[in-house]
UniProtKB/TrEMBL annotation, chains A, B:
Cofactor list: pyridoxal 5'-phosphate
Superkingdom of origin organism: Eukaryota
GO biological process: gamma-aminobutyric acid catabolic process
Gene3D superfamilies: Aspartate Aminotransferase, domain 1, Type I PLP-dependent aspartate aminotransferase-like (Major domain)
Species for this entry: Elysia marginata
Name of this chain's protein: 4-aminobutyrate aminotransferase, mitochondrial
A GO-annotated cellular component: mitochondrion
Length: 493, 493
């Protein structure tokens, strides 16, 4: 018997059972519990990270590599680097982990035989979709679609999502201009030579400090950091001012209302000028909160006004929720807080959604096939994993938890700001998104580094903001650890 | 004992063992053998595909959906649709399957516990790479890099790869113009407003009938089909004529040489005019063979001449091998056939490589961090699968097989062309890439449909070409099946 059982195990080992413990997945079975607190053993990056960076630098520029990660042994809200440092992660791969590292429900998906072909056979989704694909989309991406956005396109990444969403807006604009007529032969011929009328002089209005991605269409809307844009030819499209709110909001209510009005008037001016310059605006694109640009919020009234202007001028409104969606704010989409009269026309997503893509209203839907398309057009295996993620969000009421933890986190930032007013200002946030400003970049960067040496990993944005981007599974106990280390560092500054 | 064994199986079932056969993976264990020939049971699309398309059409435009696929039960070179039709697949997800469906070595990767964290934890690769990432790249993507291209960037898809490769070229061009100086404050300020000098008036020269992708930078280089470009504003960059070779090549040697010269002269003219117009060419981009545009080859001499022109003018040469690379031609990269004096500066890939990305020469390498970057910057899980794919290509000598099978396929196309000269012309190909022209689109489309009803699935390109894109595992026996059905259809035309 012993021999038979042993043989059984041998066979199973060949087929993927861990040799240490007779359970299915090594990484999961052995490291599934979050530590109680961070552990820092070396400077960060440590010697192993530094050696690996040297190797990688032979292949590509690694100036922005921070450290190398042991993903096998990272768990929940804790990231473990290759030198064995275990950090509470409040940046989470630039806000792209919904549940943290190695979540058991995600690992379940990866070991379910029913899912394997999604990972083994990436389809050309636009022409050969997998069986019951509409059902999969309905149970996942569409189950969390912003109200009124019934149409959906998956894409590979955030930038591609923005690019193709813009194309939806351009097509809709020209379709309306054509009044139902088919494109002319001249349009068809000239579009193959990049010239009007086939490639019309249309534009997209974006905002200063915005960020929408690094491909040339998305980049034309991005104005937050010089090293994103320098040296690249760009569409000369209108760029308006995004409101700069004064904090605390209740104190500067009047000023902020005036700022909204000023910025909206500028938007209207720019739309008018673009039209006069023969380059009418087909789409206004904005993040519901500017992230890379420095966690810059605007009021619901501003976005309501923006929608009014768009509707008055027959312009599509694109809200880019790549960083703010997927429950990050305690609502599934940040723009739900705006109570817009009508749905925005286009909403892009990626990061925590695991797949790129965008939702759109029926009027943005292409009337010819193959207009919004590329070979992969997304990746159904990511949607399969997303299904588990959305299940956990629902089963564990993670939106409510994110609101609660977010409020608790905000309180700790507010307390710190009150205690250290010479160092901190403008504490702001919603759910898992939080930020606070420093007097300049240098003290901010210094604090972030010292915080990391105490085991708490955070991000930065804008010129002098600290940016927190946690998972949706963050709890008050994690915030306590952050607050403790944050105050220690502030006290010693 | 029986009870203990039974319990053992129960546990295992929960952890992913097939309930039918006590092996690890259902899809793999039950359907791992290719059928001997196709089976067609219904019209294609069949009733189930039609119903699923109706459902999907509620969510997005499905005009170009051909049929829905049962990926679980597709195997090797045979694709199975949801109606149970099993087709010999000679289009393979728009040329994106290196080894076919559910290859055992790929399934092995997916069940190896050592790999699971790559699938469960997608990193922000540019700042938090996984442990030993340089080693993984060296063993995979770099092990098949075109000679002289020592630098590498992964990206999510083909279009993004082209976009970021262009950025590499723009930066290199401006870096040389600056002669080592840092960018000026004026450049830094203006680049955030999309205007010169920060966003300079540079251009990329592309070719008529080219295709490089659907995002706005890649799209500015794409001129093959109107529905890719219509309605979208575009960079007004120079577009030159790609040679039209006359077949058979040995008969039209002189004419083709003259065509090369004519097209190269036009390239030089366009470069000169762009310079005069204040929009100098920083990069010339070309597919080594135009795929979407109609499987249009050009001679090695043409590409050698193109490189000469680029070098003379200080312009980067980008060869887009998204569809032609990864062994498709019997060499790993099509441009190896060109015997260029120096490596091209940039080579993009995707499709059969499973991940997007590009190789580049050291002079194209950004000197500042974060210039070529996005959150995901690729997907290491795809590289993990690619490792197995490259292993199979080597172990099974698939490049040699692809050459052999390709020659055998070409012979069958040549034979058919000789037999049906009123229907077929310009049979051409290299390895797994093959095409033949029809007098017009209608007879081509008609034949392709009838071929499918006999169990052979092929693609189309250009205005009237049939396009074959097989896996690298195709054998002569598969070609025999294709040839048999192809001749049947031709005979009845």
């Amino acid at each position: 018997m012993t021999i038979r059982l042993f043989k059984q195990f041998q066979t199973l080992k060949l087929h993927g059972v861990c040799s240490v413990c007779p359970l299915w997945r090594h990484a999961w079975s052995c490291y599934s519990t979050e530590p109680n607190s961070p552990t820092v053993k070396t400077s960060i990056p440590g010697p192993k990270s530094i050696a690996m960076k040297r190797d990688l630098d032979l292949i590509q520029n690694t100036d922005v590599v921070q450290f190398f990660v042991d993903y096998d042994r990272s768990v929940g809200n804790y990231i473990r680097d290759v030198d064995g440092n275990v950090l509470l992660d409040l940046f989470t791969q630039i806000a792209s982990l919904p549940l943290g590292y190695n979540h058991p429900r995600i690992l379940e998906v990866l070991k379910d035989p029913a899912n394997i072909s999604a990972f083994a056979n990436r389809p050309a989704l636009g022409i050969y979709p997998p069986t019951e694909f509409a059902k999969l989309l309905s149970e996942t991406l569409l189950s969390v679609a912003p109200q009124g956005l019934t149409q959906l396109q998956t894409m590979a990444c955030g930038a591609c999502s923005v690019e193709h969403a813009l194309k939806g807006a351009f097509m809709a604009y020209r379709r309306r201009e054509r009044g139902g007529s088919a494109p002319t032969q001249q349009e068809i011929d000239t579009c193959l030579m990049n010239t009007p009328p086939g490639c019309p002089k249309l534009s997209v209005l974006s905002f200063k400090n915005a960020f929408h991605g690094r491909t040339m269409g998305a980049l034309a809307l991005s104005h937050s950091k010089w090293f994103h844009n320098l040296d690249f030819p760009a569409f000369n499209w209108p760029i308006a001012t995004f409101p700069t709110l004064k904090y605390p909001l209740e104190e500067f209510y009047k000023e902020n209302i005036a700022e909204d009005a000023r910025c909206l008037a500028e938007v209207e001016d720019k739309i008018e000028s673009a039209k006069k310059a023969g380059q009418p605006v087909a789409c206004v694109a904005s993040e519901p909160m500017q992230c890379e640009g420095g966690d810059r919020y605007a009021s619901p009234q501003f976005f309501q006004g923006l929608q009014d202007i768009c509707q008055k001028n027959g312009i599509a409104l694109l809200l880019d929720e790549v960083q703010t969606g997927a429950g990050a704010t305690g609502k599934f989409w940040l723009h739900e807080y705006f109570h817009l009269r009508d749905p925005p026309n286009l909403v892009t997503f990626a990061k925590k959604m695991l797949t790129g893509g965008f939702y759109y209203t029926p009027d943005m839907r292409p009337t010819e096939g193959g207009r919004i398309f590329n070979t992969w057009s997304g990746d159904p295996s990511k949607v399969v994993v997303l299904k588990a993620v959305l299940g956990v969000i629902k089963d564990e009421s993670l939106l409510a938890r994110t609101t609660d933890t977010g409020n608790y986190l905000m309180k700790s930032l507010m307390d710190a700001q009150e205690k250290y007013p010479h160092l901190l200002s403008n504490a702001r946030g919603l759910g898992s998104l939080a930020a606070v400003d420093f007097p300049a970049a240098a003290p901010r960067d210094n604090l972030v580094e010292r915080l990391r040496s105490l085991g708490v990993h955070v991000g930065v944005c804008g010129t002098s903001s600290m940016r927190l981007r946690s998972t949706l599974t963050l709890e008050r106990k994690h915030v306590d650890i952050f607050a403790d280390r944050f105050n220690t560092v502030l006290r010693d500054t």
